[in-house]
Specification:
Number of strands: 7
Distance between the termini: 25 Å
Helix content: 10-25%
Shape: globular
Order of helices and strands: EEEEHEHEEH
Oligomer: single chain
């Protein structure tokens, strides 16, 4: 099994809002809430993301988010994605580097937020993960990174 490296940002204050399924803004899944997240990077809200949570897990997640500042952890892995690659204009036969982005709360809870796929199949997953961490520390949004899903 290949060694997996995790890279983490410094701690950031987190802002969040919980939208219940009946909220007209969500249009989401029944019995799930959407938690909209933003990090305060250099005093500016950035790294906006939405995390979908089953209703029975909302309170524990909110408690974790309120427990203190958060870090963003990023791991790099190679992924196969034949159907998605073709839609993205990439070679579906190749593995592509991907960075998996999680929010790590002060109490240790992890919220998986995004998978960012690199366009260059020859790039290393570790290099992409480091790039993502640097961009987050600069205040980049997930949507500004290569291909977020």
């Amino acid at each position: 099994m290949p060694r997996i490296n995790a890279f983490a940002t410094p701690e950031y204050p987190v802002l969040f809002t919980v939208l219940a399924p009946e909220d007209p803004v969500t249009g989401g899944q029944p019995d799930h809430a959407e938690i909209s997240l933003a990090l305060l990077v250099k005093g500016v809200p950035s790294f906006l993301a939405t995390h979908v949570v089953p209703m029975e897990r909302v309170n524990p997640v909110v408690i974790s988010l309120e427990s203190g500042d958060v870090r963003v952890a990023v791991i790099g892995l190679s992924v196969e994605m034949p159907e998605e690659a073709a839609e993205m204009g990439l070679d579906p036969r190749e593995e592509h580097p991907a960075a998996f982005v999680s929010l790590v709360c002060a109490d240790g809870r992890r919220l998986n937020l995004a998978r960012i796929v690199g366009r260059d199949a020859d790039d290393s997953p570790e290099r992409l993960a480091r790039f993502v961490v640097r961009q987050i520390a600069r205040g980049a949004q997930i949507s500004e990174l290569p291909s977020a899903s």
